[in-house]
Amino acid sequence: MAEAQPEPRAYFVVDTSSLIEVRCIEPKARVPAVLRALTRFVDAGELVFPAEVDDELDRFRKPGLEDPIGDRVAASKRRATRFGPQFERLKTVLADPQARRVVDPEKGGVDEADPHVLALALALREKADVVVIAQETRDRPDKLSIATACGVLRLVRLPVSAFLYEQGIWRP
C-alpha cells in the first residue's frame, strides 16, 4: 500500500478564471510548459480547487476543439479536489452580506465555482497558509468579484500572472 503524502504547509486555491487566463499567455508555445508546472503543483498537493472549477471549465468547452487546460484539470481532479465540498465554510461565505454577492444573479440555477473556491480557502486557512489564485476583479452593483470577496474574507489573492512569476514558472 502506498504511503500517503504529507500535506503541504501552504495551499494555492485556483479559480476557473485563472485557468482560462492561462490560455492567454503569449507566446502560445509557453502554455504547455506552464501547464506541466501547474500539474507539478497539483501532484505536490499545493494547488487545489473545488470540483465546481472543473464543472465550469466543462461548460466553456467547445465540442470538437482541443482543450489542453480542461483536459489537464480533468486529469488532476482527483488530487486537486481531495478535500471535497466544504459546506460549513460555504455557509460562512453565503452568510456574509458582501461575500455572498460573488454569486452572479444572472446565472440562475448554475452552481458557480467562486463561493466554493472561497469556502475551500477558508477551510484550508485553518491549517496552513492559503493564497487564492483568481483573475476576476470587476465589481458590479449586484455582483462582487472574487478578488473583492477575498478582501472581505481576509484571504490573500493573486492574479495567475503574479503567481506564475512568483513561482518561477513564467517570466513575461
Can you tell me about this structure?
The chain has 172 residues and is of the alpha/beta class. The protein is built from eight helices and four strands. The chain has helices at residues 16-22, 31-43, 51-60, 68-80, 87-95, 114-125, 146-152, 160-166; strands spanning 10-14, 47-48, 129-133, 156-158. Strands 2-1-3-4 form a four-stranded parallel beta sheet. α7 links the parallel β3 and β4. The radius of gyration is 16 Å and the shape is globular. The termini are far apart. The model has no long low-confidence stretch (mean pLDDT 92).
Query: Nearest-angstrom radius of gyration?
Result: 16 Å
Low-confidence stretches: none
**Average of pLDDT:** 92
Give the helix/strand class: alpha/beta
* Order of helical and strand elements: EHHEHHHHEHEH
> Portion of residues in helices?
40-55%
Which terms summarize this structure?
alpha/beta, about 170 residues, single chain, about 45% helix, 8 helices, 4-stranded parallel sheet
Quick gist of this model?
The chain is α/β, with parallel strands linked by helices.
